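idk why but the lab printer keeps eating my pages so im just putting this in chat instead. protein + magnesium ion:
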Amino acid sequence: MSPLPRHVHLVEVGPRDGLQNEKQEIPAAVKIALVDRLTAAGFANIEVGAFVSPKWVPQMATSAEVFAGITRKPGVVYSALVPNMKGFEAALAAGADEVVIFGAASEAFSQKNINCSIAESVERFRPVAVAAKAHGKRLRAAVSCALGCPYQGEVPIEAVVEVVRRMADLGCDEIGIADTIGVGTPRRTSAVFEAAARVFPLGHLSGHFHDTYGQALANILACLELGVATFDTSVAGLGGCPYAKGATGNVATEDVLYMLHGMGIETGIDLDAVCAAGELISAALGRPPHSRVNRALAARKAA
Ligand code: HMG
Ligand code: MG
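predcted complex ->
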């Protein structure tokens, strides 16, 4: 076990992963207000939207408007998901600082989510990677279904390693290992990250955990014990992928902050400000924040 990281970097994915699966139309102004609140809370990286087909994910159709409306803080990375060159061109026009290509360790999920095989997806990502470098954009990759697939079930660790290797070959600055459906448990999570670290530096790997089975915090702790220091989290525990039915939201940012700060790990992020952002977006969606820490702190304040 290596010493725990002293500082952890959180990527706030609420405006993208958090909202992409919402059926009701969320006005761009609400998304802009959310991103601005998250900027003020101290995040160094915020996933603002996705430049994907609006037929596939209608909620993300306002991403250009959202990018145009946010107030940017110097030094903060505002990122966008892009599945192909069309998405990259849109992200470039919107002024995204980082583009996120997203592949899968499961063939079945790759087909359902981006309508092509893993090998085809890597060929689509190749020109995106070249263009990102040419334009000085940071390049991040997500590897979905690293701990299980909604269609194929178990995903072999070697399949994850193979996709991480292919993403590494594209020149990614960071590769995120994603538990898309939140089925992973800590020992398996450690094994996947240890295996991925054989082909890509551990310091540039990040964790993305959906919390469907309530395992996300335990999985993050397992990663911290290996020395992983970057995680995606979602304010108010929003989230889900339209092509991963039954999967609930990402691990709530508030819950992760409470755990990290309680362990003496710095994040540079203000928990109270994140709670307020969580309340803002949850009120817009007409439900309470799906974060135990948010609800516990609100109850304490009210008492
Ligand atoms: P396709 O139908 O195979 O694409 O979809 P196509 O190239 O044949 O194009 C079909 C139509 O889409 C055309 O329009 C294109 O112009 C348009 P039409 O002529 O029919 O009017 N199109 C686009 N429009 C806007 N932006 C684009 C774009 N590309 C093509 N970039 C495609 C392939 C990849 C486009 C589609 O499958 C898609 O958009 N999929 C996105 C799915 C998605 O966003 N899923 C959620 C995000 S991933 C996730 O949540 C997992 C993650 O959180 C990690 C984890 O938890 O695992 C990251
Ligand atoms: Mg996700």
